[in-house]
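Input (structure):
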């Protein structure tokens, strides 16, 4: 088995353990993040209905303009600011953060800090 498959399997197991505790409600939606080597993705999810309210990624033209690359800390921070602004326009202010099994550092931390600065409460 390749080392990348083992790492992904471990991440998914961590994500399952996190999801047991992190549940979005109608009052406090869940923000789920996913990172790949080249991009960063975030979604607001209502777990009571099982629907994604909206999602945004660094592949979006609004986010990617002026960035040197889309898979770095600067891109994740830019995404966090824009994500928080769009969430506020949709009426979402309180959320719970689902790090998706990733360690809370680097791009994940940069996104979370920028989203907090943008006005999201978690």
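Output (sequence):
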């Amino acid at each position: 088995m390749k080392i990348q498959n083992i790492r992904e399997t471990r991440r998914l197991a961590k994500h399952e353990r996190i999801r047991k505790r992190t549940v979005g409600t109608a009052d406090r939606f869940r923000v789920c993040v996913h990172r790949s080597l080249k991009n960063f993705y975030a979604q607001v999810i209502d777990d009571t209905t099982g629907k994604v309210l909206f999602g945004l990624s660094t592949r979006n033209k609004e986010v990617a303009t002026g960035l040197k690359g889309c898979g770095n800390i600067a891109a994740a921070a830019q995404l966090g600011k824009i994500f928080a602004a769009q969430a506020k326009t949709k009426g979402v202010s309180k959320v719970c953060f689902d790090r998706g099994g990733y360690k809370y550092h680097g791009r994940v931390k940069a996104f979370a800090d920028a989203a907090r600065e943008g006005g999201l409460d978690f």
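Notes: The mean pLDDT is 92. The first strand starts at residue 29 and ends at 35.
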